[in-house]
Specification:
194 residues; alpha+beta; Peptide Deformylase; five-stranded antiparallel beta sheet; two-stranded parallel sheet
Length: 194
């Protein structure tokens, strides 16, 4: 079932997210609904707070992005031997990040019709549980790492806009107010701030 995505300004996007265990009620259904919601919105990642569930759970699909790129772009955006992932992250934590950073444009399903250049580490090492609740420790690079960091931020009450300089955020304020009031329409179901 496709769930409505919360818009910028909705309070749940800033709520403290909580760890969950394998007995979390209807976890499998929530994960399946999140995948359907993400793909229905043509997204590459989605975090539980974006669908009104403040828990430490998010999804990332960088494989579809990889598959759509030409070889030259893959060299710039993905590390060697990285063909992308389709992965569920539960109770994730970043335990290491590279000093090397890079800047690329990011958007967000909760902030439609807006994208900004954001600087992030090129690689990160994550500890998390996968969909089967098996503990993982993996290092991710490039676009995959960027997508993970973006979604991880949601579970930390952080939006990609928070990484912008204050002046840039101020310049975007008018657009953000329109998004929060539902005046910017998305091509997928949304729930707007009250």
């Amino acid at each position: 079932m496709q769930l409505p995505i919360l818009s910028y300004g909705h309070s749940v996007l800033r709520e403290q997210c909580h760890d969950i265990d394998s007995g979390y009620p209807e976890l499998t259904k929530l994960i399946e609904n999140m995948w359907e919601t993400m793909y229905g919105a043509n997204g590459c990642g989605l975090a539980a707070p974006q669908v009104n569930v403040p828990v430490r759970l998010f999804l990332v699909d960088s494989k579809t992005t990889y598959d759509k790129m030409d070889d030259r772009s893959r060299e710039d955006y993905f590390a060697a031997n990285d063909t992308g992932i389709i992965e569920t992250f539960i109770n994730a934590a970043i335990i290491d990040e590279s000093e090397e950073v890079w800047t690329d444009e990011e958007g967000c399903l909760s902030i439609p019709a807006l994208a900004e250049p954001i600087t992030r580490p090129w690689s990160i090492t994550m500890e998390y549980f996968n969909r089967e609740f098996i503990r993982q420790t993996k290092t991710f690079y490039g676009t995959t790492a960027r997508m993970i960091q973006h979604e991880y931020d949601h579970t930390e009450r952080v939006l990609y806009l928070d990484h912008l300089k204050p002046l840039k955020r101020k310049l975007l304020q008018g657009k953000l107010e329109k998004i929060s009031k539902g005046l910017v329409k998305a091509k997928y179901p949304m729930k707007f701030a009250k």
